[in-house]
Amino acid sequence: MSTPNLMLEASGLNKRFGAVVAAADLNVRIHAGERVSLIGSNGAGKTTFVNMITGYLKPDCGRIMLAGQDITPLDPRAITRRGVARSFQIPQLYGDLSALDNMLVANACHAQKL
């Protein structure tokens, strides 16, 4: 059963890297209009969580729903087309372009309007 205005729901996410547990039974619900921050020490699982919801990592188990649709099996491009994208900690920018021009180049690569 869906909750009105529930945009993103991650339920029961688990991710291991060998013996290292990066996420254990992670549950997150974000409603339309909410602003959310992820804070924690190094190794707490913040990047792992973002990588799972954007498709760069697949959870070992659990489910990720976006506006009522299961996006867990989708690749990053398909998830980006649905409106969920990420930036990287070390961005690959064109130094001679403005911030806007760098965004327009990235946008052109995805063939979508900003």
Fold and architecture overview:
It is a single chain. With 114 residues, the chain is of the alpha+beta class. The chain has a domain of 79 residues: Rossmann fold (3-Layer(aba) Sandwich). The protein contains three helices and four strands, in the order ββαββαα. A four-stranded antiparallel beta sheet has the order 2-1-3-4, covered by helices on one side. Strand 3 and strand 4 form a beta hairpin.
**Into which percentage range does the β-strand content fall?**
25-35%
Q: Percentage of helical residues?
A: 10-25%
CATH architecture of the domain at 6-84: 3-Layer(aba) Sandwich
Structural class: alpha+beta
Tell me, briefly, the overall form: globular
Oligomer: single chain
Radius of gyration, in Å, reads: 16 Å
Low-confidence stretches: none
Order of helices and strands: EEHEEHH
The CATH superfamily of the domain at 6-84 is known as P-loop containing nucleotide triphosphate hydrolases
Number of strands: 4
